[in-house]
Amino acid sequence: MKNCNGSEHQTTPRILLIACATALAVAFTIALPQPTYSDRVKPPPVPSNIQVPAGSKAFLEGHAVGTQDYICVPCPNPATSMCPDTSGFAWVLFTPQATLFTDNDKQVITHFFSPNPFENNTNAGVMADGTIRATWQDSRDTSTVWAMAIAASSDAAFVAPDALPWLLLDVVGAQDGPTGGHRLTSTVFIQRLNTVGGIAPSTGCAQATDVGKRASVPYTADYLFYN
Fold it and tell me: Are 126 and 119 a contacting pair, CB within 8 Å?
């Protein structure tokens, strides 16, 4: 019993010593400057007309997987100022449906069209809820931004011939999540880059019986968020 008690008395201080050392190591690690996500975002070369203004910094990147959803409508109309051919009908984008992931496949954002509550949309004297804009919503804190395209490029040196144009978008509305989440609300500009697929079908919308027909075209793209 004496030897056993002696071993117990020696073990307890040893455990305390290990626990203290571990706590100090954790505290030291937390105290060290931690790299921010923005430090890991490295914007690629882009066509000159879709570069962000000087001083803008990329703080978030998402790799989108989804569809560009089109509907067949008569043209010309507010969505397409001219018909692409002589048929009098055209495919018009009515929403993207995409999920954005990080490099390690963690979902971060959903992308779609929705009314921007910060822009009034007046049509024939009737005030609507808001202008329909491209929308990005954080998957965790539901902070949301709305943006409009201000420049596009299909430069063959960057963009594949069968892919969506690369875009520069200006944020025209931002909203915190219901619990105050604000990861996206500092966004000022968004770039859509490295597009694959997504362009409207070349057939299936050429006559009156096609009106209202829908087509979901798979696409991928990278979205960079700048503040």
Answer: no
